Amino acid sequence: MRKWLPLVAICLGAFILLVDVTIVNVALPRMADDLDASFSSLQWVMDIYALALASLLMFTGSLADLFGHRRLYAAGLTVFALASLGCALAPNAAVLVASRGVQGIGGAAMFATSAALVSATYQGRDRGTAFGVWGAVNGAAAAAGPVLGGLLTQGFGWQAIFLVNLPIAVAAVYLTLKVLPAGSRGAGRLDLPGAAVFTLAAAALTYALIRGGEHGWGDTGTVTAFVIAGAAAVAFVPVELLAPHPMLDLALLRRPSFAGLLGGALLLQGAAFGGLVFVSLWLQNVLRLGPIRGGLALMPMALTSFVVALLVGRFTHRAAPRIPIGVGLLGIAAGSALLYAGVSAGSGQYALVAGLAVAGVGVGLSTPVLVSAAVAAVPPQRAGMASAAVNTARQLGMTLGIAVFGALFSSRLRHVVSGGGSIRAAYASGLDRVFLVSTIGALLGALVVLALVRHAQPSVTGAPVPSPASPSRDPEPATPAAN
Q1: Contact 57, 112 (CB under 8 A)
Q2: Which of 86, 205, 342, 471 could form a disulfide with 351 if both were Cys (CB 3.0 to 4.6 A apart)?
Q3: Exposed, middle or buried by CB within 10 Å (0-12, 13-18, 19+), for 276?
Q4: Cα–Cα separations (whole angstroms), residue 300 to 324, 353, 463
Q5: What is the pLDDT of residues 31-50, one digit of tens each?
Q6: Which residues contact 10 (CB under 8 A, 6 or more apart)?
Q7: Is the pTM of this model over 0.85?
Q8: DSSP string covering 321-338, please?
Q9: 3-state DSSP call for residue 191?
């Protein structure tokens, strides 16, 4: 039994960092009341955390290679715990948003090292089991966030959703230092320009989408933010091409399987989870459900995703990766379509059950395979970089999903209310638009994966998965079966 204690330490960290992506969903109305927060501030409470994760995953992976995986994982847990305390004590929305950003920094350090720690700790069949459990935790954590958030918010106040992280983080740090292998420090350099340009592009695009939904797409601030995002995205290409130790080797994007997995990961996360915050607002502001009932209304997704990932996760690694990922995205599309067809102005909470359950099956099928499939699609010396890139795409999908859906949702609310419609009709119209775009996004992701991802089979029992490193441009061996 002792051999699984390292996995417990890793899964504890993975759970709190991923559950915090969505745990604030059902607490947002209480936060808005207590902190007098605007709708855009509420979006930033969600988005700044996922944005920090997306922006810093590859960079913190390079730090892990320089200073050691266990050391950076423990440091990330500590930063995450302290930032969680800052969130709980926040006197206003600005401090809360800033603390959530610091949470994301700690979460990035944890997320960037967890797969490498699993791979370095276990061998053979145990590694397959460990990755199956770790994948199940990853797949279920974000879906379980609203349920846990509802229970904690109604029982103890919204501050409890952050305070609960403290004892879990302390236990994880203790186990990490006690049972995880120390590892060794590596060599190399940090790609500071690449990290800065990528962060600027992602942050400016997110800001532009949120501001556009609130102030209009022709607003000077919105247009300026889009221009900055575009310029930074363009600049990222030469910065990475000229870097001796690039954060992302752009040559990997010429591999169809790898490019398809990145696109699928981005669309999967946005379609499955980006709209949940607005469903939570509908449950509490329109249906007048408390946080507990509002969180429980979202439980079908949490249950089915966890059960499917746990039962099927080990077996899906044996199949061509495009099958579970592509079918999973089709399941998310089907669930979103059921929500689009089932939710109307006269609907109650039970209109969500079928759609969320089906979408959860899709999440459980696809999520555990993403990282190992990306690792199998690139040369071995780029494995850590591939792992970081696909997780970055997931968190960026969540960030942009919230921003896009927020713009659509608020636009429909204003349009219906200004036309004399009821608040109930306005929320239903906004959710219809969210579910429709989710369906289209998941279908597009499925098509991308099924068309581009080839039949290379990921192996969780082969070579260890390094952290998201930034290796130098050494000649790469030919890997005809991996692209």
Answers
A1: yes
A2: 342
A3: buried
A4: 20, 6, 36
A5: 888 888 877 787 788 878 87
A6: 73, 114, 117, 118, 121, 134, 180
A7: no
A8: THHHHHHHHHHHHHHHHH
A9: coil
